[in-house]
């Protein structure tokens, strides 16, 4: 905790812009998603064709879509889907990938080789292609999007954990633990994992931003969360038909996705500076 607090003060002075902007955007996204569970300016499902394709106004701050629904309310509810899929996909990749990476680093030999080759195989399939495969086999939906994006994250965390853990296994304190009779998994959990946790936190932040982009792409293709649940990607898809009549339909979802990903990347950069020991020595 002292190291984290010291790193926080250090980053606040030297890389504070990334930290505060990224943290503010990330916090705002989380706050909007929570608020949308209990309140939105207008109904998410009620249609009013007399008010369709309205520009931003006092009543509808971001205008209305082709069915007369409030765009702001749709964006707020879309944050729920983006956060849910992003968090679950990152957790799936983190838990499975870190476990495989620790196992590969601890055991070595054919286990390490098999794990790395399996990771290379998964890298050959882009996340959208994985989602298409899942949709063809199991049908489109939120759960399948989570699984597809999560599987895509597994080799990322596995290779990252394995590479960092291999260097930790050569340290003196790990050798002392082995001499003291500690088991392989005991050493991995007590000594190796805490020392690679910093890079995993940074990677989780970056993977979260990528997961939101992937979810938007899958929703745009009709493979993600299905109607009537709003998603940012499907809002972009629906807006392309009405670009000449109301360009705001595409501008606002596009800006939301771009700002969210930018904020998460800035926050990840600040965390990297906070947790990287080399940054501390350079200051």
From TrEMBL:
Segments traversing the membrane: 20-40, 82-106, 121-140, 196-223, 248-268
Membrane topology: Multi-pass membrane protein
CDD domains: TM_PBP2 (cd06261)
A Pfam family: BPD_transp_1
UniProt-listed PROSITE patterns: ABC_TM1 (PS50928)
Gene3D superfamilies in alphabetical order: MetI-like
PANTHER family, alphabetized: OLIGOPEPTIDE TRANSPORT SYSTEM PERMEASE PROTEIN APPC, PEPTIDE ABC TRANSPORTER PERMEASE PROTEIN
Domain of life: Bacteria
GO cellular component: plasma membrane
Biological process, per Gene Ontology: transmembrane transport
Name of the protein this chain belongs to: Peptide/nickel transport system permease protein
Subcellular location: Cell membrane
């Amino acid at each position: 905790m002292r190291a984290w607090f010291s790193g926080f003060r250090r980053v606040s002075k030297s890389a504070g812009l990334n930290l505060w902007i990224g943290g503010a955007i990330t916090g705002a996204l989380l706050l909007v998603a929570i608020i949308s569970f209990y309140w939105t300016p207008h109904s998410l499902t009620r249609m009013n064709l007399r008010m369709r394709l309205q520009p931003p106004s006092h009543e509808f701050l971001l205008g209305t879509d082709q069915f007369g629904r409030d765009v702001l309310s749709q964006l707020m509810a879309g944050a729920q889907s983006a956060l849910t899929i992003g968090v679950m996909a990152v957790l799936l990749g983190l838990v499975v990938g870190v476990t495989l990476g620790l196992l590969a680093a601890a055991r070595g030999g054919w286990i390490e080789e098999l794990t790395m080759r399996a990771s290379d195989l998964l890298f050959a399939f882009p996340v959208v292609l994985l989602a298409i495969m899942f949709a063809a086999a199991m049908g489109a939906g939120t759960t399948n999007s989570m699984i597809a994006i999560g599987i895509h994250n597994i080799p990322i965390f596995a290779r990252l954990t394995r590479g960092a853990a291999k260097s930790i296994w050569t340290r003196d304190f790990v050798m002392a633990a082995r001499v003291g009779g500690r088991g392989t998994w005991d050493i991995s959990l007590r000594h190796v994992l805490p020392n690679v946790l910093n890079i995993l936190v940074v990677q989780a932040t970056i993977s979260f931003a990528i997961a939101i982009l992937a979810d938007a792409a899958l929703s745009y293709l009709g493979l993600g969360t299905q109607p009537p649940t709003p998603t940012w990607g499907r809002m972009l898809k629906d807006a392309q038909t009405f670009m000449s009549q109301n360009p705001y339909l595409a501008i606002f979802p596009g800006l939301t996705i771009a700002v969210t990903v930018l904020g998460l990347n800035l926050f990840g950069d600040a965390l990297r500076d906070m947790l990287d020991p080399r940054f501390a020595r350079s200051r």
